[in-house]
Known about the structure:
Elements: H1 25-39, E1 45-48, H2 55-64, E2 67-71, H3 75-87, E3 94-97, H4 101-109, E4 115-120, H5 127-133, E5 137-147, H6 150-153, H7 158-165, H8 175-192, E6 196-206, E7 209-218, H9 220-230, E8 231-236, E9 243-246, H10 249-253, E10 264-270, H11 277-287, H12 295-307, E11 315-316, H13 317-324, H14 331-340, E12 344-347, E13 354-358, H15 361-375
Parallel strand pairs: 1-2, 1-4, 2-3, 4-5
Antiparallel strand pairs: 5-7, 6-7, 8-9, 8-10, 11-13, 12-13
Helix pairs in contact: 1-2, 1-11, 4-5, 8-9, 11-12
Amino acid sequence: MDLYRRPDGSVEPAWMPVFYNPEAVISRDLTVLFLKAIMGKSNFFFVDLLSGTGIRGLRIAVEVGGYGILNDVDPRAYHYIRRNIALNNLEDRVEAYNNEANALLNTLVFTGIFVDYIDVDPYGSPVPFLDSIFKPIGKEAYIGVTATDVAPLACTHPRKALTRYWNYCVKVDFEKEYAVRLLIANTAMRASALEVELEPLLALAHRHFIRVFFKARRGVSKAYSTISKCTGYIWYCQNTLERGFVKTPEEARELACADGSKPITLGKTWICEIGDEGTAQRMLQAASSMQWLRPGTVNLLEVIKEEIPIKMPYFRLDRLCSLLKTNMPSINTLISELKARGISSSRTHMDPRGVKVHAKYEELVDTVLQLTKYLGYGR
Length: 379
């Protein structure tokens, strides 16, 4: 492993002969927890589309169950997948494939066997595979999608955000959540073109990647209803950090920021909830019976569950306090004060400086200023 370490000590997966990322263990933990919570002990058929060494699919088979295909187009990866299947005595339930990912999915359409879960975890963007993953599913299935091209999703590279994800955007203080919402919206819109409705059940923004688990259901009316309800725009005031959701850019043009300026409009993106609290709760319950979870996985999932009900994008507290010209209180202290005022709030797993708040902007600002004044380091 030392051959593939950067000077800072971190492992660079792209340097390995076969892709394996030890930093993505939380992503794999959440995958097995998600399937344990959703599938239970039922026999299900899954496809690990871009398998690398096969570790994700192997963990699904060992820790959850089911029957599956572990696929990778790289012959070297295919060799290691077969070897790892044998080492885990899974030859009767898991099969290795050496196909191009889209070709495999299109071939499965004609087998008459519907896939219950498809996992897409590429090095980079999932866009080249999205149109194919909806074809071999039945009336209802589940999909896990990862993106590691966080820069365009978070609008660090706005040109790529436009060409790859069809999105006009600028840098915002809630960039990780914007990346999550953009990935959900783009995936859902591509699915709707094939008359498939997607519902995000759990979303994760962690370090170098975005991960979303979807429930997929066939039906043109379902797809239309969800897309018409849940895609729209975010209006954003760069000078005051105010934000909100609108269905059309025209609605945003009628708004004004607290300083009198006009908000900018970001989108098209996802404007509904980015997760399901019940799914997160079932995953937490399933965690008690799982043996090989990383210690931080459950703590991360608890934070995700707490923030799911609060739809408004998180505020970067350091940025807000800088605008208000006051020192930043601790996030836990602010959350306690907000809750004492009857305002729903929580931390966010996406940014250690972020706070999720279900309140008007003026209520948040007043709480911050009153709290900092009480603590003795206000303006």
